[in-house]
């Protein structure tokens, strides 16, 4: 019988039920569990593949307009401003420069977070940039234009692809640029723009891999072709479904298809092992020193040996949108819940505590929780382990103590000071978002657990005004059962100010226009209008039509003086 701990702190029993008569048995699983190292919230969806810099730190661009640099324990080392909302395609240069795409441009950002240059394009990028060993940057945009830049962002040469963009470009072992086009051809150029050859695939490219002596490319017709470095066909193999990802291992190559099946092929095209079902909705396949790592969009992660045997399994508690691999074989991923996750590719050591945001508890920590009362722990260990233990208790006392610890840390910090670990905010966000999703019935009325604690947590988040709290505050503003708590959440959204996708604005406006809120809740209305004005001032943009109409309704229907004054300021707002 295996017991593990869920992120909420409550034990989950993993058993296999064997019904023989009326008997119930539980058995051990032989598949090691992969360790979730950390979860780091950001203020927006992670855009593009997370990367690892030359110092072994993780880099991730977020739609909150920040580039995050994070260490292996999930601590934020730096958060650099971006010149816009990233589009989702990026790359890391040989000198540590980070290249990030925006709506119709590519920006180069130095390792310290400063903007080096920005090159404007005629259309948005279609795929990740490709960087050569001498620092040249190759881009394919949505119009089918191939652009080559030098390391200073200056144009070197351009070409137009037949049929538009066809797939992710790559550089082979000789330094030759390989670019698929929309008509089903692979095209080869030397870095300075001399065309070499074309090779026709069976369909449009879906994945490609550059090995030491050859190229492998899959098409949407379900075939994998091995192509020589001179552009001639060596062999082709048909699979049941087309491959989305290709990866190399010591005995050949592996293909992860659209249905989540993993196939193992020799370098001669022979099927080595029967295809195994790996992960649903695949978002990545990576080579490990001793096998392969497959990543599913649903959060499932599995490792396989070279022989196709499952060697490890883990999960991330959210749908993944993008994934990358670290030099140590760990997974770094972005998710739909605006978090950055890191997962080890090896089995969990039950005697080692996992990092911030990971599963709250293992065997050693359960002994720790049971060894002393919460008050005694509080006095001796005011750190992540203590907060995890307090949250794992599942009761009011533990949460009260956790909030007291966080409050004390914030009181000792000067405004803008972010030296304290970010997991303090994680725990406050957990408390702020916990109960209203699980209302309970009591005497025929819907009530919630600990609304006062939830309000205290929201006040901490509102006071800190961190972008990482944006999602929690938006959710609380939209779904809170208690008006006072909703007011605190809306105040927090106004203090943060940033609203790159206008969701905060839409959420607050929707609250005001629902039913007779404007007439019956003057306090909520006044706070909401002030928050909307703060957001407008922060973003420096005039109100759109929906916000303008909301302000008109408040000014027309409200009898509250403050509400009407804030509505008038919005109507008169100028950039």
From TrEMBL:
Residues 65-166 form the Pyrrolo-quinoline quinone repeat domain. InterPro entries: PQQ_b-propeller_rpt, PQQ_rpt_dom, Quinoprotein_ADH-like_sf, WD40/YVTN_repeat-like_dom_sf. Pfam families: PQQ_2. It comes from the Bacteria. This is Pyrrolo-quinoline quinone repeat domain-containing protein. It comes from Marispirochaeta aestuarii.
């Amino acid at each position: 019988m295996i017991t593990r701990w869920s992120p909420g702190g409550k034990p989950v029993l993993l058993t296999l039920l064997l019904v023989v008569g009326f008997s119930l048995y539980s058995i051990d699983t032989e598949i090691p569990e992969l360790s979730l190292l950390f979860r780091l919230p950001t203020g927006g969806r992670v855009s593009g593949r997370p990367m690892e810099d030359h110092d072994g730190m993780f880099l991730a661009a977020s739609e909150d307009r920040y580039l995050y640099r994070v260490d292996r324990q999930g601590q934020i080392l730096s958060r650099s401003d971006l010149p816009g909302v990233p589009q989702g395609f990026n790359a890391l240069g040989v000198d540590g420069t980070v290249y990030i795409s925006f709506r119709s441009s590519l920006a180069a950002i130095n390792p310290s977070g400063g903007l080096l240059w920005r090159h404007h394009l005629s259309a948005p990028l279609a795929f990740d940039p490709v960087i050569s060993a001498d620092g040249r940057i190759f881009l394919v945009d949505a119009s089918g234009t191939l652009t080559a830049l030098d390391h200073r962002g200056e144009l070197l040469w351009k070409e137009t692809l037949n049929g538009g963009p066809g797939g992710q470009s790559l550089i082979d072992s000789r330094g030759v640029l390989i670019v698929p086009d929309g008509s089903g051809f692979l095209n080869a150029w030397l870095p300075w723009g001399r065309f070499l050859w074309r090779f026709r695939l069976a369909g449009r490219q879906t994945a490609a891999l550059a090995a030491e002596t050859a190229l492998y490319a899959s098409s949407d017709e379900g075939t994998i072709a091995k192509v020589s470095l001179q552009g001639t066909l060596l062999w082709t193999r048909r699979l049941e479904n087309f491959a989305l990802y290709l990866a190399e291992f010591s005995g050949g190559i592996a293909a992860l298809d659209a249905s989540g099946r993993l196939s193992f092929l020799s370098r001669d095209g022979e099927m080595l092992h029967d295809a195994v079902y790996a992960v649903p909705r695949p978002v990545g396949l990576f080579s490990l020193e001793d096998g392969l790592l497959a990543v599913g969009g649903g959060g499932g992660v599995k490792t396989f040996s070279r022989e196709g045997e499952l060697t490890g399994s883990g999960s991330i508690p959210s749908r993944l949108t993008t994934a990358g691999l670290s030099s140590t074989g760990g997974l770094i991923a972005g998710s739909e819940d605006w978090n950055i996750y890191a997962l080890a590719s090896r089995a969990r050591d039950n005697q080692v505590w996992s990092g911030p945001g990971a599963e709250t508890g293992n065997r050693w920590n359960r002994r720790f929780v049971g060894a002393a009362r919460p008050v005694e722990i509080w006095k001796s260990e005011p750190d992540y382990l203590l907060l995890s233990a307090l949250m794992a208790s599942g009761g009011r006392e533990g949460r009260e103590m956790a909030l007291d610890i966080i409050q004390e840390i914030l009181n000792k910090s000067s405004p803008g000071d972010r030296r304290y670990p970010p997991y303090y905010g994680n725990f406050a966000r957990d408390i702020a978002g916990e109960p209203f999703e699980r209302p309970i019935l009591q005497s025929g009325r819907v009530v919630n657990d600990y609304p006062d604690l939830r309000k205290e947590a929201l006040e901490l988040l509102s006071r800190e005004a961190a972008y990482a709290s944006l999602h929690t505050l938006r959710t609380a503003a939209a779904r809170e059962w208690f008006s006072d708590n909703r007011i605190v959440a809306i105040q927090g959204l106004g203090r943060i100010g940033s609203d790159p996708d206008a969701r905060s604005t839409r959420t607050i406006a929707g609250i005001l226009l629902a039913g007779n809120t404007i007439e019956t809740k003057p306090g909520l209305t006044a706070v909401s209008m002030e928050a909307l004005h703060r957001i407008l001032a922060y973003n420096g943009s005039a109100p759109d039509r929906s916000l303008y109409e909301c302000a008109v309704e408040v000014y027309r229907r409200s009898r509250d003086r403050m509400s009407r004054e804030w509505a008038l300021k919005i109507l008169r707002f100028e950039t």
